[in-house]
Amino acid sequence: MMVPMRQKGVSAPEFVEFYTAQKDRCLRAAVASGMEPDRAEDAVAEAFARAWSRWGSVRGMESPAAWVVRTAINQHISWWRKRRREVFPEVPPDLPVTDELGRPDLVAAIRRLPPRQREVVVLRYLLDLDTESTARSMGVAPGTVSAHLHHALASLRAHLTVSEGTSP
After folding, report:
1. In terms of Cα–Cα distance, which of 125, 132, 131, 93 is closest to 110?
2. Nearest to 70 by CA among 159, 140, 168, 167
3. Dist. CA 76–CA 108, nearest whole Å
4. Most buried residue among 13, 31, 130, 152 by CB atoms closer than 10 A?
5. How much is the pTM?
6. Class of domain 12-84+97-166
């Protein structure tokens, strides 16, 4: 099947390679940022579609994966704002979401962090951005990133130490 070109000089194989290499990381980052797994899949898929339509400019960014995750988060926020007054029963996900090490407790602890701390952890550790890139992605100063990261890591250490101490 021939994939239509959106912009001159943009190759489909280049985008397919990016998508294949980054889709799982972006999905884990979206879930860790607080989205339910099914909503994260939809938001990340939409974000990749938007990345394809703008691939000429997105590919030149410092971290296209961070752009995809930020776009997915923004899309999820828009979705949530439209539906925030609707009430839906809570349905737990079928399978626990884990990080690359297979630790569902870590992902659950990250999801309990305040939104800005959660976003810093996702960008710094799940997408491997440095402090400067994280700051630019979030639109804040590098010191703000460091402060949020400090508080987030302290909270994660405290939670995971308590959780590990209570398990058999």
Report:
1. 125
2. 140
3. 19
4. 31
5. 0.56
6. mainly alpha
Would you write out the chain's pLDDT as a tens digit for each of its 168 residues? 445 444 556 678 899 999 999 999 999 998 888 888 888 999 999 999 999 998 989 988 989 999 999 999 888 888 777 666 545 444 444 444 545 555 677 778 888 888 889 889 888 888 888 999 889 888 899 999 999 999 999 998 888 776 555 544
DSSP secondary structure string for all residues of 43-108: HHHHHHHHHHHTHHHHTTSS-HHHHHHHHHHHHHHHHHHHHTTS-------SS----TT--HHHHH
Q: Half-sphere exposure of 149 toward its Cβ, with a 13 Å CA cutoff?
A: 20
